[in-house]
Amino acid sequence: MKTRITELLGIEVPIIQGAMARIADGKLAAAVSEAGGLGIIACGGAPAEWVREQVSIARSITNKPLGANVMLMDPGAAQTAELLTELGIDVITTGAGSPANFLPMWKEAGIKVIPVVASTALAQRMERLGVDAVVAEGTESGGHIGELTTMALVPSVCSAVSIPVIGAGGIANGRGIVAAFALGAEAVQMGTRFLTVEECSIADAYKERVLAAKDSDTIVTGRGSGHPARCLKNKFARKVRSLEADMAAHGDELEQMYLGSLKRAIDGDVDNGSMMAGQIAALVQERKTAQEVIDELMDQARAFGALDLEQMAQANASRGE
Ligand code: TUI
Fold first, then answer.
1. What is residue 192's predicted lDDT score, i.e. its pLDDT?
2. How far is CA 57 from CA 83, 89, 146, 218, 284, in A?
3. What are the residue ranges of CATH 3.20.20.70 in the chain?
4. Residue of the nearest CA to atom 27 in ligand 1?
5. Is the CB of 280 under 6 A from ligand 1?
6. Is 119's C-beta closer than 6 angstroms to any atom of ligand 1?
7. Residue 74: what pLDDT?
8. What digits encode the pLDDT tens for the residues 171-201?
9. Cβ(111) to ligand 1 under 6 A?
10. 3-state class of 28 per DSSP?
């Protein structure tokens, strides 16, 4: 199917795999791209050698368009930004800040740039800078989050900008895709839905927690330190929340706890790790391949017979005319 996003990126279905820090590697991203969506390698916190290796792994699996994410709070963001340009990545998404400093370099190299935004004001600033599209990510998402819900953010961003908008946060099935399009999106980004696919390399114990999660099983840590992040409830998250009640007394201890917390989760320590996941983990109930997930999502979305996704995307593309 065609929307402004599938045309812009040269992909077959309007589904982008969210960049999940320390999780979304070359193997996962390649599987999603090969299935017709856009796979994204998450470079946040990763050394240059790892990024180089993952891009090479992905390229050995697929020749289809491939993306990478630069986490702007990462102290190594500038180095990653340059490396990805050198490696000739097709698409760069950014998170947790403004990519203004890197934009001229990326555009010069012909890279499609898609910042993730959590507010309408930032979406407008990004459009003025000349980005290709934005991901409007609601607070239902896993990982680092803003305040606004997808339901409020996506239509607000769509009314304020003319570039295409990708909806994200709380989307994991065909209903979610159709809902995002109804709000004005021309594609969706999903992270949590891809946590349990075969090509995702996290420990089985983490996957089992995602599969078992109910809708009330996520919690937001880090509000106290100004870096809110949604993860599954566990011993780690509860301890962080209780220490956050008194930041002055526990700031140092919290910093120690966060060190390596993503890696612990990915390695299967479901008690002491931070298992990032979105609220929609409740809907993720099976293990499939990336190809099976993408096929199922598109079948489900199309099954809402009265709602033609391509027609909706065309209407969304001509908004404001
Ligand atoms: O970036 C994300 N999600 C992430 S990053 C990440 S890595 C991490 N590791 C450990 C602890 C915490 C994080 C995990 N998940 N999503 C995109 C996103 N960007 N969400 C919200 C924002 C955002 C917030 C404020 C973007 C810009 C912004 O303001 C920038 C400005 O200049 O106004």
1. 98
2. 16, 13, 32, 32, 27
3. 4-199+289-320
4. 97
5. no
6. no
7. 95
8. 999 999 999 999 999 999 999 999 999 999 9
9. no
10. helix
Q: How far apart, in Å, are the Cα atoms of 103 and each of 22, 108, 203?
A: 24, 8, 36
Ligand 1 and 19: CB distance under 6 A: no
Instruction: Name which residue sits closest to atom 17 of ligand 1, judged by CA.
Output: 95
Residue in 182, 161, 157, 156 with CA at minimum distance from that of residue 171: 182
| 142 alpha carbon, distance to own chain's centre | 8
CB 263 near ligand 1, within 6 Å? no
pLDDT at residue number 225? 85
Does the pTM of the predicted model rise above 0.85?
yes
| Greatest C-alpha distance within the chain | 57
The CATH homologous superfamily to which domain 4-199+289-320 belongs is: Aldolase class I (3.20.20.70)
Specify the pLDDT at position 180.
97
321 Cα–ligand 1 center, Å:
32
Band of pLDDT at residue 123, cut at 50, 70 and 90: very high
Residues paired with residue 92 on neighbouring β-strands, in sequence order: 68, 113
| High-pLDDT (> 70) share of the chain, % | 98
Over residues 219-226, mean pLDDT = 92
Residue 320 has pLDDT above 60, yes or no: no
Residue bearing the CA closest to ligand 1, atom 3 = 144
The atom number, within ligand 1, closest to the CA of 135 reads 17
| Ligand 1 centroid distance, CA of 223 (Å) | 13
Question: 303: CA distance to ligand 1 center in Å?
Answer: 34
Instruction: Write out pLDDT tens, residues 21-46.
Output: 999 999 999 999 999 999 999 999 99
Better-scored residue on pLDDT, 267 or 304: 267
- Tokens linked to 268: 């299967």
Query: Mutation test of ligand 1: which of 71, 144, 218, 276 has the most ligand atoms closer than 8 Å to its C-beta?
Result: 144
